Automatic annotation (TrEMBL):
Transmembrane listed as a keyword: yes
Organism (species): Flavobacterium myungsuense
Pfam families recorded: YtxH
Keyword annotations: Membrane, Transmembrane, Transmembrane helix
Name the record gives this protein: YtxH domain-containing protein
Lineage, broadest ranks: Bacteria, Pseudomonadati, Bacteroidota, Flavobacteriia, Flavobacteriales
InterPro entries: YtxH (IPR024623)
Superkingdom of source: Bacteria
Transmembrane segments: 6-25
Length: 79
């Protein structure tokens, strides 16, 4: 779980840096707002993809452990 905290910290830092860079860039307000929205959507998609991967990995581990437990129960019943 420590690596997930680091990942969230890095993503948060990148997001804050990107927003600060956009806010201090010389552009019209409407253009800046559009940039912020587009960056936010990009980060949201990245986070969603990472969340989906973690969920899939967790599900795979759960299925593996469940199958191992079933195999152990079958072995014990045979003995």
């Amino acid at each position: 779980m420590n690596s997930s905290k680091v990942l969230l910290g890095v993503l948060g830092g990148v997001a804050a840096g990107a927003i600060a860079g956009i806010l201090f860039a010389p552009a019209k307000g409407s253009k800046t707002r559009k940039r912020i929205v587009n960056k936010g959507k990009g980060y949201a998609n990245d986070v969603k993809g990472k969340f989906d991967k973690v969920t899939k990995d967790f599900s795979n581990q759960y299925e593996t452990i469940l199958q191992e437990a079933k195999d152990m129960v079958s072995d014990l019943q045979e003995r």
